Amino acid sequence: MKKILIVDDEPEILEIWVSQIQIWKLPVEVHTAINGIEALKLVTVGAPYDVIITDYKMPMMDGLEFITRLKGDERYTSTPIFFFTGFLPELSHHIEILSNVMLFEKPMISDKMRMYVRMSLCEGLREA
Fold first, then answer.
1. Which helix (H) or strand (E) holds 117?
2. Domain residues of the chain, as ranges?
3. For residues 4 and 2, what is the distance between their CA atoms, to the nearest angstrom?
4. Which fold has domain 2-127?
5. Are 29 and 3 in contact (CB under 8 A)?
């Protein structure tokens, strides 16, 4: 079964994501983490995640640092990463780190997002 990791420090946002994925009826296992440190622990255990959705501003380790460290793991070099933030202008200095990362401005959990996640999961199915 495909796996999605959602990283956000707001429990309500994590609940919304999990609910949306259930509503979208995606055949996936959903895991959540409340910051980048917890997420890094999850990505090192078991089979790699097929899609990662992360927030930017979080305590302990933000989404940018999480993505930077994640890209150092060759199992995640081609994993679709969706990066959500209300601070897009702050990220303009980090274009190299964010290459191959889809940036979205908060709030955005919509049909468009469902399409992106679904397409990313299908790409992984074709590669497997």
1. helix 111-127
2. 2-127
3. 7
4. Rossmann fold (3.40.50)
5. yes
